[in-house]
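Sequence only, no structure available. Ideas?
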Amino acid sequence: MIDPLRDISRQPPAPAIETVPVAMGKALVAIKDSAPALHAFTQTLEMSRRLRFPVAAVTVAPIYEGDLGLSGIGSGHPAEDEPARLVLDGALDMAVAEGLGLETFRATGLAHLSILEMVRGVGFGLVVLGRGRGWTSPFNVAVRVARQSPVDVLVIPQGWSVRFNHLVCGAIGVPPDPVLDTAIHLASLDDGRVTFFTLAGKPGPELPPAPRVKVETVRTPRELYLGLRAAARQEATDMVVFAEAPGGLQSRWGLPPSIRLLRAARCPLWIVKV
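Reply:
I predicted one. Tokens follow.
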């Protein structure tokens, strides 16, 4: 059971940034007391400064199911109420130090369900999550949110600084226009370049003269996926931007291409929801 979300939002003394409309709208960052989550949060603040979109942070505390009388936890309170508040206080301090505004939320229950509840009901346009180094479980929170979120998802690996010098993008089973538009918008921040994977014989979007766009034409969706996966493992790739049709091109393990890319990529992965 998931408790209703309780807003503990506070405005920092520093003025909030002036919002300039961008494709992703307000971003929701999932944070907790872990290196990958805190790294993703700091990178989101930097993106907020450059792209000028508002940011909110949410942390999720599990429900304590033991004997509350023995635990010292009052009835109806999550098991990690105080640590959750400390995490949000730290996030707010970091935003204030950067001169940025920040909404903070605390939820209780299962992490991925609480995050999905927020993005479905509050009007966010982007969810940002961190990912640790090494193998990523199919039951990881980032994986579950990426599969079910109705809005764009950005997964940032621990230790990777978000930059936009070279973005690789493509789509399987859906029109590629939103993916290419997102990649071009991001690359323009660093006067970067875009490598766009597209299927032969499929009508493609009109390519603008800038930033530099290189087109890689492949024959099958599988070749497109393999091209993106290879790029996602290269140090020269700063980010992969991808979209897919629900349930398309399943592997023998039942994982869609976006999740296989998430698990294979050494760079951030931006999943566009079309």
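The chain has eight helices and eleven strands.
Hope that gets you unstuck.
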